[in-house]
User: What shape does this take?
Amino acid sequence: MDHTTAGNHKKQIYTPKKSWLGISDWIVDKIGVRPATWKPVLKVFKLIVAGSKYMNTPLFGPIYKRLMMFDPEEKRYSHGTIFNLNVDLSEQGESVVVPMDLVKDMLSKASFIASSNACICRDANNCSDYPKEVCCLFLSKSGKTVVEHRVGYEISLEDALARVDKAAELGLVGQALWVEVEQFIWGFSNQTMEHFVEMCFCCPCCCVAFNISKNASRDVKKRFRPSGWTSQVDGELCQGCENCIEPCPQVAITLSADSKAVINQDYCVGCGICKTHCEYDAIRVTQTRPMLGSVQEYFFEDGALALKI
Ligand code: SF4
Ligand code: SF4
Ligand code: SF4
Assistant: This one.
């Protein structure tokens, strides 16, 4: 399917904001992350997460959203889809397409694949629970850009596909992200952001996107969406321990009057983080909506972004 005409959306290519032209490209050229600026950027990452705790305050909230390019008026921009790599197939047919299939399909279509040198979120937090080497992958032109800036290196398709399997084994969550402010991090010029294609393998502890989402106002939270899979609780198995509630990046879980976890299906993005925190095996990530045909179609449907892979 031609992703530029997916669904009822008209073809709409990313158009850089005029007010940012010049200024943002200057910052990208002069300051954007390079090996020499990697450490200061890690500190900025931590500040971004710390700042997100105030996103709901009347004075600082709007400023933060502007800085992070999460302006509610800019509905086309900065969003992501969750491609959980560990879904439950017990209730599904044998030939079902799973999120991992779409991730691998996207990688197979790329003309060039690069891995970032390390997971910038785990590096910033000195993560000891998950490896830094299984991290963001950038495709085609975006891959070449991170390699040129020496913050990434080329990998083969075979290696990329093996990393998807490794991420699943490690319990990392796949996220396809298009976050406009990342042009400053990875060094894309404003005009080339339509080529920005990033497939991340994220941990529940350090991921900036998950942590911002956790603190965010609902208008920002809803920029992350499920790929068609969400989590449900088996009330018979749930012991009401509450371990799943705090880690949920969407703040989608509450405890019912009879002490059973309840997941709000309007908010759940199917990341499966709650499942990994449940010692009683009471949570399943199952398909609740049909999946689209490709990762690009999610970008197109959500933000009308015809990204170029
Ligand atoms: S978005 Fe995910 S893979 Fe990318 S740097 Fe952050 S945690 Fe690592
Ligand atoms: S309820 Fe579970 S699967 Fe849904 S968003 Fe929260 S942690 Fe992720
Ligand atoms: S972690 Fe599991 S047992 Fe505990 S409240 Fe959540 S679903 Fe129930």
Remarks:
- Residues 3-215+291-303 form one domain.
